[in-house]
Amino acid sequence: MFDTLDAVRTDIAQRLKRGASDRKSAFHCPAIATADADARIMVLRAFDEDAWTLRFNTDARAPKVAAIGESAPVGVLFYDAGAKIQLRCRGTGRIEHYGPIADAAWEEATNFARRCYLGDGPGAVSDGPTSGLPERFEGVEPSDEDLEPARENFAVLLVTVEEADWFYLSNDGHVRAQFLHGKGRWVAP
Ligand SMILES: Cc1cc2nc3c(=O)[nH]c(=O)nc-3n(C[C@H](O)[C@H](O)[C@H](O)COP(=O)(O)O)c2cc1C
C-alpha cells in the first residue's frame, strides 16, 4: 500500500491536514522540540500544503517563543499508534506576533480560547495551584472588551518543514522514507 514515494508523500500531507482539522486525529497534538533540548505538546492548528508549513498558537511570553524568535531549528514529532506511523519533521521555526497569519489566527479563535491569554504567562511562579487566570474569568467567557489586553500575549509559531522522516511499523517489515526539501528516498528502518 506504500509502494511509491509519491504514496508516502500523499500520506504525510493527508495526515497533517487531518491533524490540523480533526481534534480526534493522532496527529493533532505533536511534540515540538527546540534547540535548547526542551520539548512540549502543542495543538496543530493549520498545515499549508504548498509551503509545507505547520502553524501552532502560543503565548507570546512562553519560554519557547524566546528560544525560537525569528528563526531557529524546530523538530515536530507525530505518532499515530493505530496506523503505526511515526512522522519526524525538522524545519525552521519563526514566531509571528503581529502580522496577517497571527491576526487571522486570533480572529478565528473563540473568546473562550482567547481567555487563556488574559492570565499570567506560562511558567509564572505561584504560591499554590493556579490556572493563572484572574478570578473573575474562571469558567467565564470574557467579552470582546475584556479581551483587549489579551491580544498582545498571543502569537503563532510557524514551522516550515525541510525534512520529513516517515516510518511505518509493520510485522511484514518496517518501511521508512525520507523527504529532504521535497525530494524523497527510501532508507532502512
Ligand atoms: C494536550 C496539550 C495541548 C497543548 N497545546 C498547546 C498549544 O497549542 N500551544 C502552547 O503554547 N502550549 C500548549 N500546551 C502546553 C505546552 O505543552 C507547554 O506546557 C506550554 O506551552 C509551555 O511551554 P514552554 O515552557 O516550552 O514555552 C499544551 C499542552 C497539552 C498537554
From TrEMBL:
<dbReference type="GO" id="GO:0010181">
    <property type="term" value="F:FMN binding"/>
</dbReference>
<feature type="domain" description="Pyridoxamine 5'-phosphate oxidase Alr4036 family FMN-binding">
    <location>
        <begin position="23"/>
        <end position="95"/>
    </location>
</feature>
<dbReference type="InterPro" id="IPR012349">
    <property type="entry name" value="Split_barrel_FMN-bd"/>
</dbReference>
<feature type="region of interest" description="Disordered">
    <location>
        <begin position="123"/>
        <end position="145"/>
    </location>
</feature>
<protein>
    <submittedName>
        <fullName>Flavin-binding protein</fullName>
    </submittedName>
</protein>
<dbReference type="InterPro" id="IPR024624">
    <property type="entry name" value="Pyridox_Oxase_Alr4036_FMN-bd"/>
</dbReference>
<dbReference type="Pfam" id="PF12766">
    <property type="entry name" value="Pyridox_oxase_2"/>
</dbReference>
